[in-house]
C-alpha cells in the first residue's frame, strides 16, 4: 500500500517545505497534478515548478498529466524529474504511441480514466502499463467528493491483474479520505492519492500515516 500526497492542496508559496514534510513522513510517491485549462477547467503549473521541487526529496514523482496533446510535453516533465507519467485515455487518440514515447525516456508509463470512462477500453494495453489511475472525482479540482460508482472498475482491474499476472499498480485519485480509502483498498487499489485529506490537516505527516495504516488494514484478499 502506497501513499501519494497530491501537492495540489499544498501551500504553493512554500512548496519545498510541504514536500519535505510528506517525504519525511513516509510518502511513497509525490503526486503532481498538471492542468492546462483545456482538458480540465483549471490551470495548475508546469515543468519549471516540478524541477524546482526535485531537490527537496528522493521519492518518485508521479506526474498526472491533465492536458491535451500530452506528447508535446512528456520530455519536458522527464527532464524536470518525473519518474512515473500518467496520461488520460480521453486525451490520447494514439494511446499506444504515447505510452511508447513515455517509456522511451526510461520512466514508468501509466493511463488515467475518468469516472465516466469504462476500464475495458484499457484491455489492449493492460499487459504493458506500469500504472492504471482511476479517477474517483472528475478531474480539475481538489477537495471534491468521492464518486463510489468507480469502485467496480477498481475491482475489475484487480481481477484482471490477478488472473493474468499483470504488473500494473492501481492508483485512486480524488476524494480519498479515512473513510473512502477503506472501500478503495478493499476493491484492490494499492496507491492512494490524497490532497486535502493530508495538506488541509493541522498535521499533514500524521494524516498521511493514519491514511496509510487504514489502507493497510483493508488490503484486498483476492
Ligand atoms: O487529480 C486531481 C484533481 O483532478 C487531484 O490529484 C485530486 O483531486 C487530489 O485532491 P483531493 O484529494 O483533495 O481530492
Ligand atoms: Fe491527480
Automatic annotation (TrEMBL):
Similarity field: Belongs to the ribulose-phosphate 3-epimerase family.
EC number of this enzyme: 5.1.3.1
Cofactor: binding comment: Binds 1 divalent metal cation per subunit.
Annotated catalysed reactions: D-ribulose 5-phosphate = D-xylulose 5-phosphate
Cofactor: Zn(2+); Mn(2+); Co(2+); a divalent metal cation
Keywords from the UniProt entry: Carbohydrate metabolism, Cobalt, Isomerase, Manganese, Metal-binding, Zinc
Residues reported in the UniProt entry to bind substrate: 6, 64, 140-143, 173-175, 195-196
The UniProt record lists the keyword Glycoprotein: no
Pfam families per UniProt: Ribul_P_3_epim
Alphabetical GO biological process terms: pentose catabolic process; pentose-phosphate shunt
Gene3D superfamilies: Aldolase class I
CDD domains (UniProt xref): RPE
InterPro entries associated with the record: Aldolase_TIM, Ribul_P_3_epim, Ribul_P_3_epim-like, RibuloseP-bd_barrel
Pathways per UniProt: Carbohydrate degradation
UniProt gene name: rpe
Function: Catalyzes the reversible epimerization of D-ribulose 5-phosphate to D-xylulose 5-phosphate.
Positions with a binding annotation for a divalent metal cation: 31, 33, 64, 173
Source organism: Mangrovibacillus cuniculi
Name of the protein in question: Ribulose-phosphate 3-epimerase
GO MF, one annotated term: D-ribulose-phosphate 3-epimerase activity
Active site: 33, 173
Domain of life according to the entry: Bacteria
GO cellular component: cytoplasm
Amino acid at each position: 500500500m502506497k501513499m501519494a500526497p497530491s501537492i495540489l492542496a499544498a501551500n504553493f508559496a512554500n512548496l519545498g517545505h510541504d514536500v519535505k514534510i510528506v517525504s519525511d513522513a513516509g510518502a511513497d510517491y509525490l503526486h503532481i497534478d498538471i492542468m492546462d485549462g483545456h482538458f480540465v477547467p483549471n490551470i495548475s503549473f508546469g515543468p519549471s515548478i516540478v524541477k524546482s521541487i526535485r531537490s527537496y526529496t528522493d521519492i518518485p514523482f508521479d506526474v498526472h498529466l491533465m492536458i491535451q496533446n500530452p506528447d508535446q510535453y512528456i520530455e519536458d516533465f522527464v527532464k524536470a524529474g518525473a519518474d512515473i507519467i500518467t496520461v488520460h485515455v480521453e486525451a490520447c487518440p494514439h494511446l499506444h504511441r504515447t505510452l511508447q514515447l513515455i517509456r522511451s525516456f526510461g520512466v514508468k508509463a501509466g493511463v488515467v480514466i475518468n469516472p465516466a470512462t469504462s476500464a475495458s477500453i484499457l484491455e489492449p494495453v493492460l499487459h504493458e502499463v506500469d500504472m492504471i489511475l482511476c479517477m474517483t472525482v472528475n478531474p480539475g479540482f481538489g477537495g471534491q467528493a468521492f464518486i463510489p460508482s468507480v469502485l467496480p472498475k477498481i475491482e475489475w482491474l484487480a481481477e484482471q491483474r490477478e488472473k493474468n499476472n499483470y504488473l500494473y499498480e492501481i492508483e485512486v485519485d480524488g476524494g480519498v479520505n479515512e473513510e473512502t480509502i477503506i472501500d478503495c483498498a478493499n476493491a484492490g487499489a494499492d496507491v492512494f492519492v490524497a490532497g486535502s485529506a493530508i495538506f488541509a490537516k493541522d498535521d499533514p505527516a500524521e494524516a498521511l500515516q493514519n491514511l496509510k495504516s487504514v489502507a493497510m488494514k483493508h488490503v484486498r484478499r483476492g
